Amino acid sequence: MKKIGVLLLTLLVVAIFGSCSKDDDVSVTGISLSPKTLTLLKGESQKLNVTITPQNATDTTVTWKTSDPSIATVSTSGVVTAVGAGSATITVTSTDGQFSASCNVTVNVNVASITLSETSLRIEKGDSKTLGATISPDDATNRTIVWSSSNEKVASVDQNGKITALAGGSATITATSADGKAKAQCEVNVFVSVNGISLNQSTLTLIRGQKETLVPTITPSDATTTDIDWSSSNNQLATVNKGVVTALKAGKVTITATTVDGKKTASCEITIKPSEVIDYNPFGDGQNW
Question: What are the BIG2 domain coordinates in residue numbering (predicted)?
Answer without folding.
Answer: 27-104, 110-187, 193-269
